[in-house]
Amino acid sequence: MAWDTAKTKRLLLEAAVDEFAAHGPEGGRIDRIAAAAGVNKERIYPYFGGKRQLFDAVVQRELEQLAAAVPMEEADGRPVDLPEYAGRVFDYHLAHPHLLRLLQWEALYGDATAPVAGEERRAAYYAEKVAAASRARRTEAGSAQAADSLPPKELLYAVVALAGWQFAVPQLARMITGGTVDEDPAARRAAVVDMVRRLAL
C-alpha cells in the first residue's frame, strides 16, 4: 500500500499547531506532535527538515488559511469594505486564537534584524494587501484621499493591529477598557469596525 505523503504532512502540521502555539519553536516537542498526529516522528525530518522548519511551515500554513478565509477583495474583484474587513479579521482571531500566539513565538525566537522564513513571499503578499487597502479606502471615503490621510501601508498596519492586538495582550485590554474580548466580543468587534471606519476616511 502506497504511503499517503500529503495526508501525513497535513496530520503533522495540524498536530503541530497546538503544540507550537502552547510551547513555541524551542519548547515544542517532536514526539508530542508525532503522537498527536499518529505518525512516526522520523517522518518529520524528510518532510520538513527539522523542528524549526516544521514551525515555519505551520506559521506559513496558518497565515495562508487566514488569507483564504478573509480576502481583501470581494469575489467579483470589487474593493472590500475595509471596516468590515477588520471585523472579519477580528472574528477570525476570535475563532483561531493560536495564530497570534504563533506569530508572537516567531518574534520572540527570531532576530529583529534578520528575515523570518518566507519573508520575501510574505512581504510581497502584504504589498498586495496595502494596494487593496488603498483601493478600499478610496471606496470608503467616496472620493479622492485627503492629503493628510494615513498612507495605505500605515492604514493596513493599523487594521491588523486593531483587529488582533487585544487577543495578543488581553491583560492590557482588561486594564484599559475594563473588560476582555471574551466578555463582550460583539462590543469589541463593533469598536474595531468603528475605529477603522474613522481611520479609513
UniProtKB/TrEMBL annotation:
Residue range(s) of DNA binding per entry: 29-48
Family annotation (SUPFAM superfamilies): Homeodomain-like, Tetracyclin repressor-like, C-terminal domain
Phosphoprotein among keywords: no
Keywords: DNA-binding
MF terms in GO: DNA binding
InterPro entries with a match to the protein in the record: Homeodomain-like_sf (IPR009057), HTH-type_TetR-like_transc_reg (IPR050109), HTH_TetR (IPR001647), Sco4008_C (IPR041467), Tet_transcr_reg_TetR-rel_C_sf (IPR036271)
Domain HTH tetR-type: 6-66
Gene Ontology BP annotations: regulation of DNA-templated transcription
Gene3D superfamilies, alphabetized: Tetracycline Repressor, domain 2
Domain of life of the source: Bacteria
Name of protein: TetR/AcrR family transcriptional regulator
UniProt source species: Streptomyces kaniharaensis
